[in-house]
Specification:
243 residues; Alpha-Beta Plaits; 8 strands; 24% strand
Amino acid sequence: MTPEPAIICLGCWQNMHVPIPLRGPLSAPFRLFGIRPSRMNPNTCTICEMAFTRVMKARAVTIDATVMFADLRGYTALTQSLDQVALTSLLDAFYDDCAAAIWRYDGLLNKTIGDAVLAIFNFPVRQADHAAQALLAAREIQRRFAGRRDELMRSIGAGGREIGIGIGIDSGDTNFGEFGHTHRDLTAVGTVVNRAARAQAAAKSGQILVTEAVRKRTRDMVTGIGYEHVLKGFQQPVTLFPG
């Protein structure tokens, strides 16, 4: 966990042992060349996303990572009754809560997909306990949003409506890199990503569901009873545990 904004890029330091300044007077010359804190994680820099192939010497790499999907439940129903200003306020609050929690635990907020976010832990900032960090981030997301849910819903004129966040997490080998030629996309793909997405779809509002791989890595952080779920696209049932 990085509780305070990092002074140098954690990704460049860990992967290349190069101290790229992110903040302070020494960062000014770097900003002239477009090197600044990344939007995916402000404790890493734009080199980590723009120059991936140069840094990793490959277009894609297989990494051990934890993937988290978080989805805003009830948003689709609200789009039919709220104006755009109110919907924007709701999404802003959701994105802000997710970003703050993900970055606090050194995750990469890789994608915002409508009313959902995709986060990756253990790249470019490496963590031996990345599954635990992802679970802590997920719990903080739920706490943050629950803490201001009622006030937020009143402010946008949607008091009494059902709204919440469902989260799914999985860990394992993941293919991470730049995909596409005419349009390059820096992201993760593979079974772990798909399983985390399906676990999120199975989660109820306010719930976190984690796979067996995450439960084993986080040990006594996950103590609930697991249940088999038939996830779309998977032939065999997958056991999910409340996180």
